[in-house]
Amino acid sequence: MAKILVADKLSDAAIEMLRAQPDVELILSDPKEFYQHLGEAEALLVRSAAKVTREVIEQAPKLRVIGRAGIGVDNIDLEAATERGILVMNTPGGNAVAVAEHTLALMLALARQIPAADASTKSGKWEKKRFMGTELRGKTLGVIGLGSIGREVVRRARAFEMRVIATDPYVSPQWARDLNVQLVELDQLLAESDYSSLHVALTPETRNMISREQFARMKDGVRIIN
Length: 226
What we know:
Blueprint: E1 2-6, H1 12-19, E2 24-28, E3 43-46, H2 54-58, E4 65-68, H3 78-84, E5 87-89, H4 96-111, H5 114-122, E6 140-144, H6 148-159, E7 163-167, H7 173-178, E8 182-183, H8 186-192, E9 195-198, H9 212-215, E10 223-225
Parallel strand pairs: 1-2, 1-3, 3-4, 4-5, 6-7, 6-9, 7-8, 9-10
C-alpha cells in the first residue's frame, strides 16, 4: 500500500478523492510537523507553506513523487529531486479562473477605492466625495505572463472594455493575435499601463523582475496587482 504524506491543508473533498483510491494510505500532517513522517512517505503532497528542501528530500528514502497542489514550484528543490529521480508534478490551470476573477476583483477595489471607503464608513464617516472612483473602461491593462491565469485575465478584462497589452517571451505573435491581445516588450508595457498584473511563476528568471528601475518607467498612479 502506497503511503501519501499530505503536508499542507487540503479541502475535505480533495482528501476524500485521495482516500477513494485503492491501495493508498494517507498520512495527514501540516507544514511544521510533516518532517517526522518523511521516512515512510512514497509520495509527498504540498501546497505553498511546506518547504521541500534538499534536507527534506534526503530524509525521505522511499520518496518517488512530489505533487504540488498549485502552479509554482519555488518551494521545492527541483535539483535535489532530479538527482534522486523523484518526479515533481504541479497543477497548472487548476486555479486559473479563481485567480483571474480575484485579479479583476482587486482591480475593481482599487478603481473604486473600496477598502479605504469601507474603513471610513465603518469609522462613522461618510466621505463620498473623497472616494470618487474611476472606470476600468478605456484604461490600459498590462498583463505580464500569458500562461493559463494571464489568458483568463485577458478574457475578463476585455469584458470591461479595457485595452489589454501583454508581455511573454514564450508566446508567439500569432498565438497572441488569436487571444486578441497586443504583445509588447516589458518596458513599453510598464510605460503605457494604468494597471499592471503579474502572472509569472517565481524562477531565477523572474525574481525581482519589477524593481526600482522598472518602477521608474511606470506612469504616476499606476496600480499593480501581484
